[in-house]
Amino acid sequence: MAGKDWPAALFALLQAHRVRQVAVVPDAGHAALIRLVEASNEMRLVPLTTEEEGIALLGGAWLGGQRGVLLMQSSGVGNCINMLSLAASCRIPLPMLITMRGEFGEFNPWQVPMGQATPTVLEAMGCAVRRADAPEDVAPVADAMLGLAYNTFRATACLIGQRVLGAKTFGIAPQ
Amino acid sequence: MIEVSEAGLLRRRSVVPALLAERGDMLVVAGLGAPAWDVTAAGDHDLTFPLWGAMGGAAVIGLGMAIARPDRRVLVLTGDGEMLMGVGSLATIAVQAPPNLSIVVLDNERYGETGGQRTHTGMGVDLVGMAIAAGIPQTMRINLPGEVEALRQAIHTSTGPLFAVVKIDPESLPLALPPRDGAVLSARFRGALLGPAAHLE
Q1: Interface of A with B in 70-89 (CB under 8 A)
Q2: How many CB atoms are located within 10 Å of the residue B179 CB?
Q3: How many Å apart are CA A102 and CA A104, to the nearest integer?
Q4: Residue A170 within a domain
């Protein structure tokens, strides 16, 4: 299942890590995984109005005895900065699967500042960050970051590179 | 005994212990600032999670808890400034609709920890109206001493989510500080709720 069907591999990982709450601000790159979670009886999909809600949600879930994961795109990382204090101060396992914008083949200039700053911002808040830039790397990196979060009680991020996802070109051929 | 100030407003340190009376095995989240001091003044508790930060997150922490533990009542006690910062979460909570979650805003229309500046609720914004518009099925407005007991009962029995605003006096009161190490707060909460297994996961 490794390689092209990495969304299915990610879903299998969420099952294996006993994830029960999946907090989401959608990204096209996460669309297939979101559909799998929606169809699942063992996971609760929680659509958010802004990404920092997901950190609070998963804090409450952990206090109540459930594991969660936060899905978002890189532009949402900026919305999370202060709320990451909750995970750091309270030792909450907070794995984040983040689809990248603003890098490989980006067309929209407004995506670039936050996309470029994403790993720096996460690391500045104490989050462990690893990247996957090829389809076959997504599942192993995600597995490692899920495990690191749950086993060592911290925020972790698996960045899924834009090279894996393909760039959105708004119908205009890249130059 | 619910106290009323000279201005005719409810006094928070009498309202909060009344709401927490006979709490049973209810889980409690307190928003940062005065609500955290109020729940501590009422008696610190292993199943109370007082926040020292994460402003705007109290209600959604309650949501995650309520989804995880449908067998328990979950009460979020927070302030108007904290609720306003995370007001979009009313939409998230309404969509999830956990029947066991109650959110009670202690509304003094002030940022009490930063000099008493007026919040939006002191300038016409109606949080209960926003909760109704979001689709929260149960809402209450509490202004009088005789209304507090009905809210306490609703927290334990209503098919929620329940959202209530209690208008309170903007008085400044002596601090009553809970433990402030988040690792201690989360470990004691999980230990009390989940038993020794909480620390062996």
Answers
A1: 82-83, 85-86, 89
A2: 13
A3: 7
A4: no
d(CA A161, CA B83): 35
A174 — pLDDT class (breaks 50, 70, 90): low
Domain ranges of chain B: 12-192
Per DSSP, what are the bridge partners of residue B50?
A: B30
- Distance CA(A138)–CA(B15), nearest Å, equals 52
Structurally, how many domains does chain A consist of? Answer: 1
The residues with which B150 forms a beta bridge, in sequence order, are none
pLDDT in tens, B10-54: 999 999 999 999 999 999 999 999 999 999 999 999 999 999 999
Under the banding of pLDDT at 50, 70 and 90, the label for residue B87 is very high
A122 found inside a domain = yes
- Residue A59: which of B64, B183, B198 has the nearest Cβ? B64
Which residues of chain B neighbour A42 with C-beta distances below 8 Å?
none
pLDDT band at A120 (very low <50, low <70, confident <90, very high): very high
**For B151-162, how does the pLDDT look when each residue is reduced to its tens digit (9 = 90+)?**
999 999 999 999
Nearest to B182 among A57, A83, A90 (CB): A90
Residue length of chain B: 201
- Region B12-192: CATH code: 3.40.50.970
**Residue span of the structural domain in which A144 resides:** 6-11+20-165
Query: Distance of CA B70 to CAs A162, B58, B60, B104, B188, Å?
Result: 39, 18, 15, 19, 20
Q: Does residue A1 surpass a pLDDT of 90?
A: no
At residue A38, the pLDDT reads: 97
Provide mean pLDDT across the span A26-48: 96
Of A63, A85, A150, the CB nearest to B189: A63
Residues of B with CB under 8 A from a CB of A: 27, 29, 49, 51-69, 72, 86, 88-89, 91-92, 95-96, 181-183, 185-187, 189-190, 193-194, 198, 201
Mean pLDDT score across all residues of chain B = 97
Residues 94-153 of A with CB under 8 A from B: 150
Task: Identify the CATH number of the domain in which residue A103 sits.
Answer: 3.40.50.970
Q: Give φ, ψ of A47 to 5 degrees.
A: -70, 135
